[in-house]
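Researcher: Here's the sequence for the chain we discussed earlier.
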Amino acid sequence: MHSLIIRALVLIILAALLAACASATPTALPTAAPAAPPATAPDKTAPTATAKPAAATPTAAAPTPTAAPKVKRGGTLRAAQQNDWVSMDPLLSSVNTPDRQMIYDPLVFWRSDSKGGWGPAPALAESWDLKGNTATFKLRKGVKFQDGSDWNAQVAKWNIDRFITNPKSRFKSSLGDIQSVEVVDDNTIRINMKQPMASLLPRLSSGQVDSPYMVSKAAVEKYGEEDFGRKNPVGSGPMQFVEWKSGDHVTLKKWDQYWQKGLDGQPLPYLDGIYYRLIIDDSVRLLELKAGNIDMTELIQGKDIASVKSSPEMTFTEGTWIGNNYRIAFNSTAGPFKDNLQLRQAALLALDREAMVKTLGLGSGFAAKYLLAPGMVGYDESLPTYRYDQAKAKQLVKESGFAEASGVTLLVISRQIDKQQGEMIKSMWDAVGIKTTIDTIERAAHTQKTQQARSFEVTTVRNTGLPDADITLTNLLPPKGEGGYTGLNDPALDKCLNDGRSTYDAKQQTEIYKQCQNLIYEGAWINGLWTQPWNWVTSSKMKGLIPSWGTNWELREVWLDR
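Model: Thanks. This is the structure I predict for it:
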């Protein structure tokens, strides 16, 4: 009898253990949005207002998985994207497409941590040391490109030299402070810079909208740049190029010798392949997902979010840290806003950003009162901002001496949402005495009028989020009015931004960028309107998606539960 009782207890314990194993779920990296939309900031409309600094936002690398769940290998992921391909060569393409993240590796990954911060994580570089005007990178050993050639310091130098010297390179500006690259030994490079460059890591990372991925030197030299980018792209990523049919699709297949291991201890990826389809229309992409013809897409319209969230067949992931940031910028070189601070302040106070979110976002978005995004060093919701105050706006218009009859012209791009936004701004400005006319032009002409000719008065712009305070602010407000939208020449702001990029101390950066944001607020030359967060919609059978900072798709650890 005693033995029967013991056997029964053993069976009960075994059953409990099996049940626990069966309920395990993947925990490779965070799959939920790591940061929440910013709350409504305090009402601070006086241009000289200052605020008590908040604690710095952490920017550590992504956490290590805490468990090793069972994953399934095999299968081809079917994904639909909205932008056509121009070239597979990261150096040449003016359009960022999600296949690059699988063909190539960056020097540095840009990953989130459990607290909502973002920062560098090892990729082809295992470690780095930034001091003064130099940055030393220890490279990952034993990595091969898909053509069998080696990843080493000579190849790393060649790639970075190509970024900063090739006449066709799209990275010459963003990496322009790099003077030279030295090979220290087979697995070490030293980058020499014109000045300290705190944004070097994010600029070399996968967090960029256009990331400078490392490519095979041997393949470029063998095929030439044009054929490399069109027919023979070779990287060190987890998948190899198979086919590109322009205007239709790109096919990739698994590469068995990838250096990164999965949760099962075997080389990534889990998938056998990915088939990327070009479907430009947002609604059609969603219909294809609902029909089961694709497994993944991105950036669905706000009106469709509720139906996706309610469907057990789909998973919705929203990135509050990345999206389409709508902003408004005044020309500092000419026009009615040039020498009239009160008029600029009035125009910003007249804008009801929450109404824009509700009307234009259709269920998705938040008012963007700052130029920085949640998760960035220097982001602080206690900083002063221009909240909607129609009465104050009317008062400032009168005090500014602006003659309503003369009016202002608002330049907008001829995209549907931009035009709707322009009509809302016109209505809000008309209501406070700023009579507004809308000038609608296509995107290329808009770039020429704003960033080149400066032949505008005030304009709305849309930018995708960038991973770093320095990159974001100098993109919008570069020194000495070079580029950007406002053409602003502000020595105090230029010095502040230079101070921020010249220190590697995160606490110092945080305080400096708060000062810079106060200067931006006081000048009232550019301001946030609202943000349409990026989103990803997947079949419920697709597992392991890691939301990324940029619009790239991080699919290294994705698997299909079929």
